[in-house]
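=== RUN LOG ===
request id: a7f3
mode: sequence -> structure
chains: 1
length: 346
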Amino acid sequence: MKFRVTGLALAGLMAASLVLPAFAATAQDASAEQTSSSGIYLDGELAQMLEYRLYKSVNYITVESFMAMMDEEAVVEEENGTVVVNATTVTGIVDVEDPDEEAEEQPDQEAQAQFEETLEAAQAEGQETAGQSEDAADGDPEAEESLQANVVEETLTLSASEGAQYVVANGRYLYVKNGVLELDGKIAVPVRVLAEIFNLEVGYDGKTGNVTLTSQEGAGAYLESGDAYYDSDTLYWLSRIIYAESGNQPLDGKIAVGNVVMNRMDSPLFPDTIYDVLFQRNQFSPAATGSIYRTPNAASVAAAKLVMDGAVSLKNVLFFNAAGLNSYASRNRPYVATIGNHAFYA
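=== RESULT ===
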């Protein structure tokens, strides 16, 4: 468990806690063209113990080394090409006045001492809430309640498997177009995926090849959970149309079908709700036959979540049909690509 504190007087402590060392590793896949990037920086400091590699123009970092940088107390288990991570961060939000203010506005000495005791107790004993410390509120119920209200515990559960096209973090499905890799026997995923999980902004300098990761002020320790993030109505219909139309197709084909549906919702040429898009006359045959109501398989639900989290197999697609079929789309719309048994059009 990691304990973090935010506040004006402790801003420097929070920034310093994110800066840890790193080194570059070599990938096992010698058949692919790979070149190390120049460097990866976290909040302005060079990370010197990261294991990373540039693969198909994407920076991949081993999950183990990234977690060691972000939270050395996280539990990382790696076996048979799969890595599982469990981490906890307790964030104490305490209003501490700026020490640079005039003397008459400086915080009360006794209150400051109580706060420091609370922090030390939580770090040493791994308490879930700083308000549980007897020293924190000095027996004052109102003070104890105030401290409890200002403490948040966040958890992270992450899993990734070699070859998979997504990472699962707190129930969120994050797309990995080129698949999860193994670097020197360790699971590695793209830096942008790891940054999203930790609410970090990503920057890239084309001249130096440097990648920058920057903490976002006010953001949580980890990304929002899937239960809170995914709209239930959209997930219900999207997973069912993906299953009905492409349940036997590869993952990229399932995602492409989902892309068609979401692109139609954004297009002025089609209705703006998922129900109206799917049940528009003469558009999706499963809506007319009733097969859209079948319970989707796990792969189709995963594909729907990937699409809702921004996965794109094909850009700007608005139509699809069986590959080789003579249809309105094949005659009148720009052809984009064929995935599995489906041809897609813009």
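=== NOTES ===
The chain has a mean pLDDT of 83.
The chain has two domains: 2-94+150-215, 230-345.
=== END ===
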